[in-house]
Write a structure and sequence with these properties.
Elements: E1 21-23, E2 25-26, E3 31-32, E4 34-35, E5 38-39, E6 41-43, H1 44-56, H2 84-99, E7 105-115, E8 121-129, E9 132-137
Antiparallel strand pairs: 1-6, 2-3, 4-5, 7-8, 8-9
Length: 138
Amino acid sequence: MSTFPFIQPEAEETSEMELYKEVKWNFENDRPVFRLKEPVIVTGNEAVKTWAWNALNTARKRWDIFTWNYGSDFDELIGQAYSSDVKTSECKRYLKECLLINPYISSVENIEVNFDNNGLLMISCTVKTIYGEASINV
């Protein structure tokens, strides 16, 4: 019998994350890739990149099928009279909030934010995952 029965040694967690899997995505046409009428599955870094690209292109809290944690808030900038510095800063913040929710992503770096003459937002960054690095362009 222990003198302090309420103090127990902490169990060490050794659970590793499962290999991440996702449907392969055609980024140019914005649609999944199928082979013989079956979706093509990718794993690891390519799967995380696909998740990130889709999350960035999905408006957060708009679609009932997704949790409120999934997606981006870039559309909140539409119609706002912010200076370009504030818009750029907010885009970087929205980008990190969107991507860092995924436990397979450890950091978002080398963020570049540009608005074209029509106000179209273009973002590129490097995402560090547990599998390595991935370049994202949306």
